[in-house]
Amino acid sequence: MKACKVFPLDTFPICKYVVIVSSYEGKLLLSRHRERSTWETQGGHIENGEPPIDAAMRELREESGAEEFTISPVCDYWAGDEKGSAVGRVYKAVIHSLGPMPDYEMAEVRVFDTLPEQLTYPWIIQDLIRVAGFQGIVS
C-alpha cells in the first residue's frame, strides 16, 4: 500500500530527499523528466553533508531553470510503499524568473491551473501540494 504522511519541521533528524512545490506567475510549476511522460514537483536526493535547504535550492535550479526565487520550508514527510520508505523535507518556492533549462534530467517545465492526470508520484504529490498551500489546485 502506498502512503504519504506529513509531520512538523525537524521531525526527522536526517532527511534523504527534498521536494519543492513551486509556483511561477501564480500557477503551479511542474517538471517533466526526459525519460517519462509524467509531471512532477522539483526535488531529489540530499547529497552527503548537504543541508536540506541547499539541496532544495540546487534541485529547484536544476529541474526548473529558476534563477530568482524565494524558498521556505513547509514540513517533513514520510512516503512509503511495498518497496520501502523514505523521509524528506518539503519546501515552497515562489519563482520570480526562469532561465533556460539546464541540460540535466528534465526535458521541460510547465505551469498548471489544475493538477494534470499524468503525475509521476500522484500518491505523494497531491498531499504535499495541499500542505504547501495549493488546496485549490488539488481536487
Description of the molecule:
The structure is a single chain. With 139 residues, the protein is of the alpha+beta class. It has one domain (3-133): Nucleoside Triphosphate Pyrophosphohydrolase. The chain has helices spanning 52-64, 122-131, and strands at residues 3-7, 17-24, 27-33, 39-40, 42-45, 66-81, 84-98, 106-112. Strands 1, 2, 3, 4, 5, 6, 7 and 8 form an 8-stranded mixed β-sheet that branches. Strand 6 (66-81) and strand 7 form a beta hairpin. The protein is globular and about 35 Å long. The chain starts with a strand and ends in an 8-residue tail after the last helix.
Draw up the topology in text.
Layout: E1 3-7, E2 17-24, E3 27-33, E4 39-40, E5 42-45, H1 52-64, E6 66-81, E7 84-98, E8 106-112, H2 122-131
Parallel strand pairs: 2-7
Antiparallel strand pairs: 1-6, 2-3, 2-5, 3-4, 3-8, 6-7
Structural class: alpha+beta
| Low-pLDDT runs | none
What is the typical, i.e. mean, pLDDT? Answer: 93
Helix content: 10-25%
List keywords for this structure.
single chain, 139 residues, alpha+beta, Nucleoside Triphosphate Pyrophosphohydrolase, 2 helices, globular
Quick take:
With 139 residues, the chain is an alpha+beta fold. It is built from two helices and eight strands, in the order βββββαβββα.
